[in-house]
Specification:
This protein has 528 residues and is an alpha/beta fold. The chain contains 16 helices and 20 strands. Helix 1 packs parallel to helix 16.
């Protein structure tokens, strides 16, 4: 059942066994686990079924560290959360990513990869992903020899892309029809209220933009608000704990992590067709597999580096027929928004490039590969892990939003370990491409990486917000325990990338879902 809190009386109280704050990928995945059970679930969503500019303004923040666009553009206060914005890319963390690395400060997860693996399998099904197929297996299926990268230096992996990444539309009817799941829209949570000793959450307070107030009561509370808003909500809940709930050791908001995206420069090659065969996306049963070049664990360990992967990318001219056709596909098949003017322009560009139209159709429907331009730049791009840093953090500013909540202040920091990782990665990729006669990369294009200050201007965030309520066995070193329960609070849990101790190189959503499924199984036992 989905209702708008505007329909309720001011001061209304709602109750359930489980209260979930947030209706993004984490919240909806958690709620779906209890459909048809004897447990009642209440989900509080600050937005509506469609995005609203006034509601979105509640995310306005102060950025005092490195520039960060994702704090504003990479979050969505709407049913479905940021799944209404993303493309659906998913990739598991591997065992090496979870291990303690002596050269990476504060690294090491308190749970093993073997513990996560069965929940990854279930998370795949939530995202409607296909079978896990290695890059080498895909090459064999398509009659291609895999590129002969030295496996001690680089290896190929493939991310998968969900065919239905927008949870707000994919699972709306299922949630709406569930008799034991209730969603309250426009219910903006403003405070988590505990008992006098701050060991049990007694209620959650929320309100609308028009000032109507409400209260939610449950046996268990799960905060599924993302890596930024989760920390803000805990810090703002300071009636009993002056520093914020779960913040006795000043850890909430610290260790803010992102993935760095960087474009290194152009690759020169006489083997464009070979590169397109190696690095364009594969499709099996219309499911997308995207090839990625990863730095090996051996190089990471020997040279004390972070995790990173990237690919050879084929630039599209903005008025090309291929770009136009891809945009039309997104609008018509995936619900991406576009105005009448956009539609007319895309149709015009597509029809004026019949060769591009034929090429893309043949490549996709016959060859089951993505289509990229026949000419134009080929660049090397990468996504890299950031080391946990307690000084990279979220705090509260003095300014307040329309709800009366203090806005957040973001101080994002990256440093020398990240710079060295990117330097070594591009040198290794350039060397291997040259050795295999796939192309040449002029390393003078990345001279900016030699400047410890200037290089950060070439990197940008990825809207992957992680680490601000990190997981650790000890309350002195983490905000949540290995079960994602806030240390010292009996019935408060966090379902978010905020709990990640480290981020590796992989997009975080699949791991978030695996952790939420693991948590849901625990609830089924604890609340029975």
């Amino acid at each position: 059942m989905i209702r708008d809190f505007a329909e309720f009386d001011d001061g209304a109280t709602v109750a359930a066994d489980i209260c979930i704050v947030g209706s993004g990928a984490a919240g909806i995945t958690m709620a779906r686990e209890f459909i048809g059970t004897h447990f009642s679930v209440l989900m509080l969503e600050g937005g509506g079924l469609e995005a609203d500019a006034e509601t979105q303004k509640l995310y306005e923040s102060e950025v005092v560290g490195l520039p960060h666009t994702g704090v504003h553009e990479g979050r969505a206060r709407v049913f479905g959360g940021t799944t209404t914005l993303w493309g659906g890319q998913a990739l598991r963390l591997d065992a090496f990513d979870l291990q303690k690395r002596t050269w990476v400060p504060y690294s090491g997860w308190p749970i093993s990869h073997d513990e996560l693996e069965p929940f990854y399998d279930r998370a795949d099904r939530v995202l409607q992903l296909g079978p896990r197929i290695s890059y080498r297996e895909l090459c064999a299926m398509f009659g291609l020899p895999a590129p002969g990268f030295d496996p001690a230096r680089l290896y190929m992996e493939c991310s998968q892309w969900s065919p239905k990444p927008n949870f707000g539309t994919t699972y709306r009817q299922e949630i709406k029809s569930a008799s034991n799941v209730s969603v309250l829209l426009h219910a903006n949570v403003t405070s988590i209220v505990t008992n006098d000793s701050a060991v049990t959450v007694e209620k959650i307070e929320f309100r609308t933009l028009t000032g109507k107030q409400g209260t939610a009561k449950a046996r268990v509370y799960v905060i599924c608000c993302g890596g930024i808003e989760t920390a803000r909500l805990l810090l703002a809940s300071d009636r009993v704990e002056p520093q914020g709930l779960g913040n006795k050791h000043d850890l909430v908001g610290r260790f803010f992590q992102e993935h760095i995206h960087i474009r290194f420069g152009d690759l020169l090659t006489n083997e464009r067709t070979h590169l397109q065969n190696y690095f364009e996306s594969f499709y099996r049963n219309r499911l997308k597999y995207f090839p990625l070049i990863a730095l090996s664990p051996r190089v990471q360990a020997e040279k004390h580096l972070l995790s990173v992967h990237g690919s050879a990318m084929f630039d599209d001219a903005q008025n090309s027929g291929i770009v136009a056709l891809k945009q039309l596909f997104r609008i018509l098949n995936r619900g991406t928004k576009g105005g009448p003017g956009d539609l007319r322009r895309y149709v015009r560009d597509a029809l004026t490039s019949p060769r591009d139209l034929w090429q893309l159709g043949y490549r996709f429907y016959i060859k089951e590969r993505s289509g990229t331009p026949r000419r134009g730049p080929i660049f090397i791009g990468a996504q890299a892990e950031i080391a946990p840093n307690p000084d990279s953090r979220i705090t509260l500013s003095k300014a307040r939003d329309r709800l009366g909540m203090r806005k957040l202040k973001l101080d994002w920091r990256i440093g020398e370990l990240e710079r060295r990782t990117l330097c070594e990665y591009i040198r290794t990729v350039a060397s291997e491409f040259e050795r295999l006669a796939l192309g040449s990369f002029d390393l003078s294009q990345v001279a900016f990486l030699n400047d410890p200050v200037a290089w950060v201007r070439m990197a940008h965030d990825s809207a992957h917000h992680m680490g601000t309520t990190r997981m650790h066995e000890s309350p002195q070193e983490g905000v949540v325990d290995p079960d994602c329960r806030v240390h010292g609070v009996d019935n408060l849990y966090i379902g978010s990338s905020a709990v990640f101790p480290t981020s590796a190189r992989s997009n975080p959503t699949l791991t978030i879902l695996a952790l939420c499924l693991r948590m849901a199984d625990r609830f089924k036992g604890v609340l029975a």
